[in-house]
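Notebook entry, structure prediction.
Reason for the run: the old model in the group folder had no record of what sequence produced it. Starting over properly, with the input documented here first.
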Amino acid sequence: MYIIIVGGGRVGYYLAKALLEEGHEVLIIEKNRTYCQAINDELGTICFHGDGCETTTLEQVGTKRADMLIAVTEMNTREEIELLAEALAEVNHD
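New structure, fully documented this time:
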C-alpha cells in the first residue's frame, strides 16, 4: 500500500517506521525542514518538505494514487482540519 502521513513529529515518525517494516510504501509530508532531514537520515528518503494542507503539495506527492492518508499533525483547530479536508477534496476531484 502507498500511505501518506501528514506530520513528521514523534507519532508520524514511529508510524512510518512501523509501516515501512511491514513493507508498505510510505511518504511523510512535514513542514519543518530539520525534522524532514532527520527522518530522511534515519528512514531513507521518505520525507517531503511541504505543507500537507496545500493542494500543490498534495498533488506533488501523488495523493490520487495513495491508498491511505493519515494526518498526525498538531492540528489545534477545526479550521485547520477543514483546510486539509478541502485540499484533499480539490486534489481528488476529477
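Summary: DSSP finds four helices and four strands in the chain.
The old model has been moved to the deprecated folder.
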